[in-house]
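== Folding the chain ==

***
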Amino acid sequence: MRGSLWNRRTVQRLRQALISTVGSMKIKLLLCCCIGFTLIALASRASDFMGWTNHTAALERYSDSRKGYSIVMNTWKRYDLLKQSISHYSRCPRLDSIHIVWSEPSPPSDSLRKFLYHIVQLNTRDGRQVELKFDINTEDSLNNRFKEIKDLRTDAIFSIDDDVIFPCPSVEFAFDVWQSASDTMVGFVPRMHWVDPIKGDKNRYIYGGWWSVWWTGTYSMVLSKAAFFHKKYLSLYTNEMPASIREFITKNRNCEDIAMSFLVANATGAPPIWVKGKIFEIGSTGISSLGGHSEKRTHCIDRFVAEFGRMPLVPTSVKAVDSRNIWFW
């Protein structure tokens, strides 16, 4: 009887010890999971702790202005937007110069010049010397945004409209991507084309906007409203682009960005690169808001194919993403 009682007590003690051990293991496992997630979080932000995103370090690394980039900004009678854009982009660490494409009948006012010069100086007190210039044009044409600039100090151009804002880290990342493929266009706004199935002609195409890119995951152009490309393409556009195409763009006030995409693709035989980035549209109106925009762009593609004698655009599904700023990729 005593032996049986002793056996039951022994079993109970062993059971309690086992339960205690299992509970302790669960707690340790939970602690290990917490530590693991903490380490993952710290690793994802390691670039900040190690100074990889430190603007001063980036400035020292790219002290040679030729390793920076120049902004070519298109504008038209939207002075508040222009001020806001210049104020923002002048803070970007590797920016070397800003060229404002001015095609208005009257020159920029003294007050506008003084304000923009002042804001650039205010935002570049860290030892940088960002140059601000107005490139004055006597003719009002969308071709002016790609007119050759003789005194550019950098190979890289960031072409941007005055009504779109991208955070400086996104611009800097796109610049890094461009440096790895400096002959192609690298941008934030993808578009596509495809053969018109209704007309049954391989030389007739349809222009696809953002929703077409989103649905198919494919694109063949990045628009110059927010794109990097080499300065040599300004010379090619100005001096070697068929005059009929430039005249067509001036007359129709559209499609200069498609023409640049054709030019680069024809020279490289390669697709552009789409960089993921958050866009802030600070303007309310533009050419794309007008009726029949997609139909006009489709006509431009067919017209340019006829001029080039072939379709140079190359479709792709590649997208560049800065993995330092996301959890899962």
Residues 2-44 form the longest helix (43 residues). Residues 60 and 94 are 10 Å apart (CA to CA). The two ends are 67 Å apart (CA to CA). The domain at 65-324 is CATH 3.90.550.10 (Spore Coat Polysaccharide Biosynthesis Protein SpsA; Chain A).
